[in-house]
Write a structure and sequence with these properties.
single chain, about 170 residues, mainly alpha, 7 helices
């Protein structure tokens, strides 16, 4: 039974890798200059640098958000980065568009944008459609720019959503 289960898992992972590569190659062949520019701009919304800037800004304006949003996000980043190091998956390569150097799995941009969309939607429910649209654009940008495979983005987004759903304030 154990050997068969291992074989099935390996087959599923190989199929996933093949589908990931096929999706990235498909997008590489269909690039459009104005779309490249749009997604290059959108991808910045999920960056650690931009989130760090907002953490500092919100810490000054509303210190309570630091414990509600940014401390849990930092813990989630640490988890995501640990997974990146443990898995060590190489990124798809498109040197003109993607300059990331950390391993590919999971996507930190997808993790960050999904986490923030969930957290800020809870604070400002009327903004939820815009927040989730922005997070979706960040996620799509990572695959379009060949910075990540689709499974990297799905995993990063899932980690972000799950972590944002944890009642972190109860832990402090």
């Amino acid at each position: 039974f154990q050997r068969r289960a291992t074989t099935v898992i390996v087959e599923v992972l190989n199929s996933l890798r093949a589908a990931d590569r096929k999706a990235v190659e498909h997008l590489k062949r269909r690039r459009l200059e104005h779309v490249d520019s749009f997604f290059s701009s959108m991808t910045a919304l999920g960056s650690a640098y931009l989130s760090g800037f907002f953490a500092l800004l919100f810490a000054v304006l509303e210190p309570g958000l630091l414990l509600y949003v940014f401390v849990p996000l930092a813990a989630t980043w640490a988890l995501g980065y640990g997974l990146k190091i443990a898995v060590g998956r190489e990124r798809p390569s498109h040197p003109d568009l993607a300059v990331d150097v950390a391993p590919s799995f999971p996507s930190g941009h997808a993790l960050t944008s999904s986490f923030l969309a969930v957290k800020f939607s809870a604070l400002v429910p009327d903004a939820a459609p815009v927040l989730f649209a922005a997070a979706s654009a960040v996620c799509l940008s990572r695959v379009y720019l060949a910075a990540h495979y689709p499974s990297d983005v799905i995993a990063g987004s899932a980690i972000g959503v799950l972590s944002a759903s944890v009642p972190w304030t109860a832990l402090f």
